[in-house]
Write a structure and sequence with these properties.
The structure is a homodimer of 99-residue chains. With 99 residues, chain A is an all-alpha fold. Chain A is 71% helix and 0% strand. The model of chain A has no long low-confidence stretch (mean pLDDT 95).
Amino acid sequence: MYIREFQDMMRRIYFQRDSKRGIAGTFNWLVEEVEELGTALKDNGKKALEDEFADVLAWLASLANVANIDLDKAATSKYDGKCPKCRKTPCKCPFSKQE
Amino acid sequence: MYIREFQDMMRRIYFQRDSKRGIAGTFNWLVEEVEELGTALKDNGKKALEDEFADVLAWLASLANVANIDLDKAATSKYDGKCPKCRKTPCKCPFSKQE
């Protein structure tokens, strides 16, 4: 499915609720879903893990709807086939301290 | 762009680094990007906000690559045009305490 199509589907199903909840509340839900994904990565089976990935993407799309951001355009403008920093594929950026 | 195409692009650009970093380290980066998105939602302009949405999607796709999850399949299996809980469009689930 296209990223845009998925975001539009989230709008049809959830925009009424998302817009009432607003940006801050919807962001808080996204954070909660990311925490659940973190738990599922440690100890759940594949189906549960797939569900958590789906939920994070769904809440990210919901948040984009409330913030009036086109997720497809945003993603493909920044990531156009090469690393946006070093302009290489594969990425050749120096490793950061966190890695 | 298709969700799958975006995930494949992330694999071409970043899989070497992502696989070395592993699941836990890549998850930590996702969390960091979500925090940056939270900041951008409060006080940055539209371009900065688009970049942060792009980064969260990029790290989610990277994490899916490391965890061997097909993000497109996961998302469209759970969200098939109706709310997965109440099976309505728009969603008619009762509001939770957090909303």
